[in-house]
């Protein structure tokens, strides 16, 4: 089997999950998030675009319900021993197959947690699930039970996070020679993704973001490519990925002479990032991090140009996003602890002057000061 961790690590993760289930008084939990299944068992697939569920009982017993296309995938990539297949057919209702499975597992009338907040459970499938199970068992929203456990990275996970960061740096190195007047966004994107692949990495959970000119102010990927001009701005957000572990980075690169506004916005980004890294340590809340960011931005009159979040936890993630649930936004009471991998980003998009500026890096928290996983400096990048 193609497991990325030792069996003892998976056993320890299962112990943590069953302990959390006891705290929540759950007899079983239905996992629909692919990253939850991957973390717990090694199961690696994009088959979660269809109905599939990993049933975990409080005693640690696990059963996967999936389609025939993923039967061998589960056998090859996971430590799951019991795999059930629901059959593709017209008007199929795999939630009924799940109910029958839960009945076989003696879970009628049980208190069952459900991972509702995941792209692995579509609205249509959730409707089927609730229709079948609401009179069968007591259903509890347990969307963040595994997500919280995944926040703290093990030593083996940190090794993968560090390798992902090395691939992030390699991607930037591959891009820089191509960032020049007449350079193609297509070539830059290909070089960055190619550097990750050639380094043994994986597809990212979401597309790399690339945009120049007025598109440098966009925070999402879009189709279409552009040639760079002599005086231009290029925003890049990308992630090295290794064994699905992500280490995102973000930069706005200036071609030619930066405008005074570019310099002003970069200084705000750098001051904000410095303010955050000074407190990115145990005892600080995720809300405190955002407050440090917004204070710097707002003092400089940038309230309407900044975002309402400035980063999030990262780890092993699957399509459509490498973002974890835990974000830096106002009022988030979650406390930082050692061994978290956190992506901090400064994003300023001034639509009034058409000026973009970003700065982002992934950090590993420690008992004290955070460690940047990237070896790249935070200086403003000016391409020739």
From TrEMBL:
Domain Creatinase N-terminal positions: 13-152
Cross-referenced InterPro entries: Creatin/AminoP/Spt16_N, Creatinase/aminopeptidase-like, Creatinase_N, Pept_M24, Peptidase_M24B
Signal peptide: none
TM region(s), chain numbering: none
Domain Peptidase M24: 162-366
Pfam short name (any one): Creatinase_N
Name this polypeptide is given: M24 family metallopeptidase
């Amino acid at each position: 089997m193609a497991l990325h961790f030792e069996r003892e690590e998976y056993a320890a993760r299962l112990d943590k999950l069953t302990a959390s289930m006891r705290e929540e008084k759950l007899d079983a939990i239905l996992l629909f998030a692919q990253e939850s299944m991957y973390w717990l068992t090694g199961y690696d697939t994009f088959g979660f675009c269809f109905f599939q569920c990993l049933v975990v009982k409080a005693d640690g017993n696990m059963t996967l319900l999936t389609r025939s296309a993923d039967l061998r995938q589960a056998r090859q990539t996971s430590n799951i021993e019991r795999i059930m297949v629901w059959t593709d057919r017209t008007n199929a209702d795999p939630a009924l197959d799940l109910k029958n499975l839960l009945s076989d597992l003696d879970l009628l009338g049980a208190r069952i947690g459900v991972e509702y907040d995941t792209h692995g459970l579509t609205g249509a499938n959730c409707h089927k699930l609730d229709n079948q199970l609401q009179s069968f068992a007591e259903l509890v929203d347990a969307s963040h039970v595994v997500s919280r456990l995944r926040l703290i990275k093990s030593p083996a996970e940190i090794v993968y996070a560090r390798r992902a960061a090395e691939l992030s740096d390699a991607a930037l190195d591959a891009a820089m020679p191509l960032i020049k007047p007449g350079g193609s966004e297509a070539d830059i994107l290909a070089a960055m993704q190619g550097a990750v692949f050639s380094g043994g990495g994986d597809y990212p959970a979401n597309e790399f973001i690339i945009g120049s000119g007025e598109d440098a102010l966009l925070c999402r990927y879009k189709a279409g490519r552009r040639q760079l001009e002599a005086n231009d701005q290029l925003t890049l957000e990308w992630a090295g990925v290794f064994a699905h572990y992500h280490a995102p980075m973000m930069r706005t690169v200036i071609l030619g002479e930066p405008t005074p506004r570019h310099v002003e916005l970069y200084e705000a980004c750098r001051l904000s990032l410095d303010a955050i890294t000074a407190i990115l340590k145990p005892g600080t809340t995720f809300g405190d991090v955002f407050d440090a960011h917004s204070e710097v931005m707002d003092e400089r009159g940038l309230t309407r140009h900044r975002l309402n979040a400035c980063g999030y936890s990262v780890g092993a993630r699957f399509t459509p996003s490498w973002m974890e649930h835990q974000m830096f936004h106002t009022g988030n009471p979650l406390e930082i602890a050692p061994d978290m991998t956190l992506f901090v980003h400064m994003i300023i998009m001034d639509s009034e002057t058409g000026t973009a500026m970003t700065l982002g890096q992934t950090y590993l928290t420690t008992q004290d000061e955070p460690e940047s996983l990237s070896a790249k400096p935070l200086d403003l990048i000016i391409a020739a």
